[in-house]
């Protein structure tokens, strides 16, 4: 469960990082770039921790896919980017694909080495 929390943190910090980059590029404020660097660093660290127990393909797909979904939604809301039916359909397909990737994984039985990792 803890590794899924790290994945959620990785996704959230990736979203903040990308939105900060966009904001900084629009306003010219250097603080936004600092936030971007700190958040993307945190994102990769949390992703690295998450993949200790979550399959890399699943973790990376969820990290990028959910990040892309929310970045697109927030870009529409915060930066007035256009939304059309093609983009909406793409986001729907993204969510369907992510659910298929996630549902295609199975939970493996815990071994003694896995239990040691959990401490």
UniProtKB/TrEMBL annotation:
Molecular functions (GO terms): amino-acid betaine transmembrane transporter activity; antiporter activity; choline transmembrane transporter activity
Pfam family, one: Multi_Drug_Res
Family, as annotated: Belongs to the drug/metabolite transporter (DMT) superfamily. Small multidrug resistance (SMR) (TC 2.A.7.1) family.
Bilayer topology term: Multi-pass membrane protein
Keywords: Cell inner membrane, Cell membrane, Membrane, Transmembrane, Transmembrane helix
NCBIfam families for the chain: PRK10452.1 (NF007767)
Transmembrane segments: 31-51, 58-79, 85-101
Quaternary assembly: Forms a complex with MdtI.
Gene from which this protein is expressed: mdtJ
Record SUPFAM superfamilies: Multidrug resistance efflux transporter EmrE
Gene3D superfamilies according to UniProt: 1.10.3730.20
Organism in which the protein naturally occurs: Candidatus Schmidhempelia bombi str. Bimp
Domain of life: Bacteria
One GO CC annotation: plasma membrane
UniProt name for this protein: Spermidine export protein MdtJ
Chief site of localization: membrane
Record localization: Cell inner membrane; Cell membrane
A single GO BP: glycine betaine transport
InterPro entries from the UniProt entry: EmrE-like, Small_drug/metabolite_transptr, Small_multidrug_res
Coiled-coil intervals, chain numbering: none
